[in-house]
Design brief:
Blueprint (H helix, E strand, L loop, with lengths): L4 H21 L7 H16 L4 E5 L5 H8 L3 E6 L2 H10 L5 E3 L12 E7 L10 H11 E12 L4 E7 L2 E8 L3 H10 L4 E7 L9 E7 L22
Parallel strand pairs: 1-2, 1-4, 2-3, 4-5
Antiparallel strand pairs: 5-9, 6-7, 8-9
Length: 234
């Protein structure tokens, strides 16, 4: 199958600017109080559901992967850019990183406890987002979680230069309701949302959604799906 042009240009762009990108954002989480709170809550949800392998898809140089590892998750990183993967392996030698595309994850069906896409869907054309979220649904085990972070807006920005390097990148902003709709359409209903206004250098509000792949219905011998659940009578 022929690779899409946007995948080739995204890979080449991040390969070109990997070192400067890493230097610019290496310590960014230290200033992001609310984002760290989202990661902490997400990690607790995954652990409380039994834990298991977690894929950080579009991991870049691995800063979020490492942070989630520090929160007790069995997490590894996947990125489209070989140069980003090389940097991640160098900076976090105790963690696993590999090349891959969120449109075709090399992961068996139903084997992940969670998927993280932290500002990594922003280069995906909107018409391909259903394919991405269907892929997340495929690799998640029942009860598994997906965390998606993104800038809020309706426009896209095209860049030909970044950090002094020639690139060809399109940054897309999304409305939370639209992403929630697409996740639900892929079988991943949204469990929680966060939204905050821009801070420091940010031009737009920021949002994240936590979605969950439903568990199979629990049935008793008579096929009653609510029997024995006290909450069902409240």
């Amino acid at each position: 199958m022929t690779e899409a042009d946007f995948l080739r240009s995204t890979r080449a762009s991040y390969d070109a600017m990997a070192l400067d990108y890493d230097e610019r954002f290496r310590d960014e989480l230290a200033a992001q109080t609310l984002e760290r709170a989202v990661f902490a809550g997400f990690a607790e949800l995954v652990r409380n559901a039994g834990g298991g392998p977690v894929a950080d898809v579009g991991c870049g140089p691995g800063r979020v992967t490492a942070h989630l590892h520090g929160l007790g998750l069995s997490v590894y990183g996947i990125d489209l850019s070989p140069r980003m993967v090389e940097l991640a392996r160098r900076e976090h030698p105790g963690l696993r990183f590999e090349e891959g595309s969120m449109l075709a994850l090399d992961i068996p069906d139903g084997t992940l406890a969670a998927v993280v896409a932290w500002y990594s869907t922003i280069h995906i054309p909107q018409e391909r987002l259903p394919d991405v979220f269907a892929e997340f649904h495929r690799v998640l085990a029942p009860g598994g979680y997906a965390l998606v972070g993104f800038q809020v807006g309706d426009e896209q920005r095209d860049y030909t230069e970044a950090f002094g390097h020639e690139v060809s990148l399109t940054f897309r902003r999304w409305q939370p309701d639209r992403i929630a709709e697409l996740l639900a359409g892929a079988g991943l209903p949204v469990h929680a949302r966060t939204f905050r206004e821009p801070e420091r250098w940010e031009p737009t509000p920021q949002a994240s959604l936590i979605a969950r792949k439903p568990l199979p219905p629990a049935e008793d011998g008579d096929g009653d799906q609510t029997a024995g659940d006290p909450a069902a009578t409240r």
